[in-house]
Amino acid sequence: MGNILLGAIKTYNDKRFLSIFCFGIASGFPWIMIGSVLSAWLKDDGLSRSAIGLFGIIFATYSINFLWSPLVDRLKPPILGQRKGWIFSMQIGIVACCIAMSQLTTSSHLFYIALVGLFTAIFSATQDIAIDGFRIDCIAEDDKDGMSAASSVATAGWWTGYGGLGAIPFFLADLTDWSWANIYLLLGVLMGVLAVATLLAKEPDIDRDALFDRIDSNGAGTGSVDSNAGVKDKISRWLKSTLVSPFSEFFARNGVKLALSFLLFIFLFKIGEAFLGRMSIVFYKEIGFTNSDIATYSKLLNWWVTIVFSLLGGIVNIRYGIYRGLMVAGIAMAASNLLFAVIAQTGPSTSLLAFTVIVDGFTGAWSTVAMVAFISLLCNRAFSATQYALMASLSVAGRTFVASSSGIVVDSLNGNWSLFFILTAVMVIPSLVFLYSIREHIKNVQNPLAPRT
Q1: What start and end residues bound the annotated signal peptide (predicted)?
Q2: Which domain holds residue 257?
C-alpha cells in the first residue's frame, strides 16, 4: 500500500505540471471577472436577483465553444505554436476587456457591461480550448496516472485563479475606496502577468499530421489531401477533417448509444452545483456576510482546501479509479449543498461558513479532477482540443442554460434559501443513478488509439 501511494505521489514529479498549473490559473481567473466580481458589482448597485442570475447567460459561451474548437485544433497562429499561440492571443483579448470594463458604470452602461462580459467569455472559452488541448498533448497516450495527476494540477491551478486571485477584489472593495470598475484595471494587470507566463511554457511536441494518418489507416477517413486534387476538393476535404471528423470519430469509436450516455452523464453531474454557484455571492450578501468574509472564506480558504483535495483527488483516482472518485464526490456534493441550507437558517456564522467551505471545496475538487481525467481519456490525441471542448461544454451547459434561472427560482420561493439549497442537493441524485448504470464503461475507458480487445 505504501509503495503504491509513493508511486502515485511520484507521478507529480514532472516539470510540465508547472505550465499546466499556470494555465489552470489563467483558465479560472476570467470566471471572477464575469462571475463573482460582476455579481457583487451588480448586487451592490441594486440589481435584482433575477437580473443578476440572467447575467449568467454570458457563460453560455463555454457551453458552445465546441462549435469553433476545430479551428483551434487545425489553424496554427503565426507565433508561439499551435497551443501557446491561441492561449496568448486570447489572454491579450481578456486584458483589453478588463480595460474596457473599467470605463463603464451600471447606471449608464448596463448593456455594454453585458457586451464586454460576453467578449470576455468568448476569449476565455477559446483560451480554455487551447489550454485543455495543451494538457492532453503533454501526457503520453497510455499514461492514465499521468492524466489523473495533470487533471488534479490543472484543477488546483483553476482554483488558484478563481479562489486565490479571486479574493483580491473583495478585500479591495472592503478595505479601500476602489470602485468595482477600478478593480477591473487590476484584474487586467494580473491577466497580463499570466500572459507573460504563457510565453515561458514549452509547446507540446505533437506531429498532428501523423496522427491524422493513423486515424485514416484505421478507417476514419481524415487523411491528408492528395496534392493533385483540385482546389474545391482540397477545401472540401479540409472542412470535413476539421469540422466533421472530430465529432464523427468520437461517435464511431464509442458507438452512438455509449457516446450519448457519456455525454448525458457529463451534462447531469454538476447541475446542482451550478445552481448553487450562480447564487452563492448573492446569498452571502443577503444573509449578512461582508466582502471581507467572502474573500477570506469563499475565496482564500476555498482556494487552499481545493488545492489540497485536488492533489489528494488525483492520488485517489490513480489508486482507486475514476469511477469511485466520481461517486464519492457526487455524494459529498449533495451533502455540502445541504450545509448551505443550514447557514440560511442560522445566519452569518463564520465558523459554520468555514466548515461548509471545507466540505464544498472537497466535493468541488474531487469531482472536477475525476471529471477532467475522465473526459481527457475519452479524447483522441488528433482532436484533443475539439473533443474535450465538446464534452466539457456539456458540463458547463448546466451552469448556463439551466442555472441562469437560479435567481428566478429563489424569487419564486420568496427568498427561501434553505429550500433552494435542498433542491440543489436533490438535483445531484439523477446523475449518481446514471453514473452507477454506466460504471463498467467508465472503468474500462481506453485510450482512443489503443488496440481494442
Answers
A1: none
A2: 11-204+253-443
